[in-house]
Here is the input.
Amino acid sequence: MEQDPNVARAAKLDTATLSDALDKLGIAGQCYRIKPRSGSFRMAGRAWTLLYGPAANPPGTVGDYIDDVPPGSVIVLDNGGRENATVWGDILTEIAQRRGIAGTVIDGVCRDVALCTSIGYPVFSKDHWMRTGKDRVQVEATNVVVNIGDARVQPGDIVRGDADGVVVIPKQHEAQVLDTAEAVELAENAIREAVRGGMRLDEARKQHRYHQLQTRIK
Here is the structure.
């Protein structure tokens, strides 16, 4: 599979740096309260999205979509922030790992955390709890625009996750976001090197315009 160059660029940047770039460009791409189930989890890929809603009567299913997700994708599940019913567990984790899926992001909760942490499959969610979503929620649509932690996610957007959480880079802005984030990283690395060389932190920050790094472009 040919590597996606912008996904590869995003994978080299941490979410804090990408968050600063999003702030500078006025883009709300930080997924509020979405956290890794293990601090070691890292992922980067393009979003494959799914929207859940309350179960009908008779109820629909929580989805048998996993075999249709392209390898390298990040599965993005909008469960409306629900914390009383899960939409991801050990069977999906095992299949996703085997199929080369980059990771899973849930606006809600997951279960079976022991498996994802033991095999290193990245899952990011609000929390985890054991109660199934079966007969409580159902799939409403796939590959539609969804909401994850107050961030808008379109199919094909770049999704990056690490120990600090998850950011979404809208595909129509990804070149600018990545360029900006790489410039932020260069400046911060230069500050570190200057301080290691004996410069005062305030002087290093002034020299490399640290206090303007996250300031929104007018």
Notes: The longest strand covers residues 74-86.
